[in-house]
Amino acid sequence: MGKRRVKFNKRALLFSRSFVIGTVLFTLGLISLLTGHIAADLHWSQFRAGFRPKKVKREKIDIWKSAYSHLYYGCSDRGPNFNHAVPENESNGYLLIATSGGLNQQRIGISDAVVVARILNATLVVPELDHHSFWKDDSEFGSIFDVDHFTSSLSKDIKVVGRIPYKVMRSMEKLPWTMRPPRKSNPEFYTQQALPILKRRRVLQLTKFDYRLSNKLDDELQKLRCRANFHALRFVPQIQNLGMKLVHKMRSMSSKYIAVHLRFEPDMLAFSGCYYGGGEKERIELGEIRKRWATLPDPSEEEERSRAKCPLTPHELGLLLKSLGFQNTSFLYIASGEIYGGEKTLLPLRELFPNLYTKEMLLEEKELKSFVNYSSRLAALDFVVCDESDVFVANNNGNMAKVLAGRRRYMGHRRTIRPNAKKLGTLFKARDKMDRSVFSAKVRAVQRVFWGEPSEMRPGRGDFHEFPSSCICKNTLLETNGEIK
Fold first, then answer.
1. N or C: which end of the chain has fewer CB within 10 A?
2. Angle of helix 375-388 relative to helix 399-410, nearest 10 degrees?
3. What kind and span of H or E run contains 306?
């Protein structure tokens, strides 16, 4: 019995030790398993965090001036390998240009014509302005632009003459060949299609010349485009001086001013196909004007708004400026022709910004007498005031907006605001359903990349006349000194 009890105690002791050791090992294994998962999860979360985009604190925007404008400048000088213009008697012939549209549409056409003349190695005859468009302005080139400056400024690039020499006209067996190039034609079209005709006939006329040259050219030709647009096309003293008088009057009242290209004329509203709440009277009036463009489809307001083709109303523009942070004491210059609905349409904007002026308010009737029947000359006055403004606001992305936006970028990225019409349209519809501060915050958010900042410039983006990337340089000296953030 004693021997059996001893064996039993030994077995019990052995079992209890095994149980304890097993329990300890199990517990340690469980702890190891759990801590291993925790460590792995911690490591994985840290790993993922490394690839998660870091939150960048947005800098507060100066509504009057870009913080980086001084770091960029226009650069359109001729390169060392860009050959001088050939003499008139060695060129391939004479190029006649018939422009199309309003003042700024014609300005784009003239700038492109200079480049086409260079591509064709042709002598450019001073372009003929459009006398048959909607605006019925019979101004000649020399009534708006300084012909002598245009000719001399481009003398190293192309030869410009006032007219085809008489002896050349007498020697021609047939009238000049006329052709309308396809929109945004590349240089190969001109060298392969137009050049053989020019060489054979000695004189070639290109008609409806607006947007007839591609956005994509080599840098030297793009720089020539900039030299033509930003330097060679200078207004005659009568226009420039009166425009600067308007600028001085605005500056005498305030050190800063905003220029708004309202673009709320009857023709613009009719062309857009949008409806602005004027009832049957508005539909009939604008519908009649719209008939002048036979190729336009039947208007669809919702579709046009979704495509951002509807200009903002004066009231909506006022709400935009107020939401962006402009005080009601700010001074506004309204660049516009006849405003549809007149003073009644303008009143909501005036109530938001009482310091509102037009050229008709700032000038005496006798000063405008030689301008009133010429829409292009009136538009040129507005162009000067908008160009000189601290802030330029474009209501739609038309030709004046594009040309001025490009010019202001070229001249140092002066503050230029273009409404984000697609997003703003939705916000304005829902405005009554949200608090004013919430509405303003949402407006600022959708306008974040529509301030005319240098960062908005990307090679190949949009129309070259609006985004002249080949002609804008960065000051590398300031960059190396750490001034570019």
1. N
2. 40
3. helix 301-306
